[in-house]
Amino acid sequence: MSRTLNPPQHPAEGVPGGESVSGADAGRETERRARAVLTRLTEPGDAVVGRWLSELPAVDVVRTIRDGTVPDHPGLDASRLAAYRARLVDVDPAADLERVRTAGGRFIIPGDTEWPSQLDDLGDGRPIGLWVLGTGSLRLLALRSVAVVGARACTAYGAHVAGELSAQLAERGWVVASGAAYGIDACAHRGALAVGGMTIGVLACGVDVAYPRGNTELIRRIAGQGLLVSELPPGEHPTRFRFVLRNRVIAALTRGTVVVEAALRSGALSTARRARDLNRHTMGVAGPVTSGLSAGVHALIRSGGAGLVTDAAEVVELIGAIGDDLAPQRSGPVLPRDLLEPAVARVLEAVPATADGAPVERLARQSGLPPDEVLHRLYELGSLGFVERYGAHWRLVRRRGGG
Predict the structure, then answer these.
(1) Domain spanning 337-402: which CATH class is it, in words?
(2) Residue 232 contacts residue 203 (beta carbons within 8 Å)
(3) pLDDT single digits (tens) 45-70
(4) Within a 10 A sphere around the Cβ of 5, how many other Cβ atoms?
(5) Source organism's superkingdom (predicted)?
(6) Which fold has domain 117-326?
(7) With CB atoms 3.0 to 4.6 Å apart as the test, which of 72, 207, 299, 385 could cross-link to 334 if both were Cys?
């Protein structure tokens, strides 16, 4: 599948696998291919390349690596450049992009309409791009999202709380994000899915790799009903270091993080610390004082690093202020209907103007779209302030003053 790179024959062909593209989107697609290349050359959160990308287009970064030209750039020494060049030989971005397209996904980069701008808070550690699998808009879904994380080897208490909390959040129209791992992560995803909610799985491997294997069916359900997201290109497998780096994306992407269970040295605490450093709300669920799996959460709460929450209402009470501040203004129409994508507009038209609203199945019949797609569109409309979830039903948001 891979191929050896040949020197470009034209300045616009400085990116491996860069076929000739004409029109206004040519430069954008060349930049996309270049960033796809860089996801193969670097590990997530590479601040050296991040600083470089703040100064140069990705295509120039790739060209410099290929030519072996060491720029006057902090942190980029000859040995690091040699490591990048060694990886570059077998990179085929066209094959990676096609592989993800075939699976029903895409590769999004900063500047795309789907790019969540809150990831820019990571500075030089911002993702080079994100490989996404699923049909919803990551930017819109992330507007009302909350991370629910915790121990892999969780207790029955932790599993119950994570599932219930996530189901309650989903029923309030919030998107639940987690890492698709065993334990609390899996319970959080399942809780949201069980009530027909939306969930985002942020992976430490390629979006086409089911890891852990025991969660294969769950990961497939997340891709079908929600979104799978990763910084790593197709086929890449997780490492211990990649799990830690993945946590910063979960923290930055969401409006706040809830830690359900975590021992004193749990990786879930790194997500909470990242969220706190990014000025996101950090919350913890208390557990039995005799449980070592709650010791990390208790220490976090006692130190003032997290607020105590016991249910979704308390989470929303804390996180809602940030959500209101970062979501589009609600003083008038959030987004004119004539600017909505056709499929989104069809779903909005299907929502009845009644206080009770209607379930997803009825809206699917009315709009003529599959239920899974209708669910995605409803959560997007909810993020934009058009609709809200009311139990198992969806209804129009009633604006003051008849707006």
Answers:
(1) mainly alpha
(2) yes
(3) 999 899 989 888 999 999 988 887 76
(4) 17
(5) Bacteria
(6) Rossmann fold (3.40.50)
(7) 385
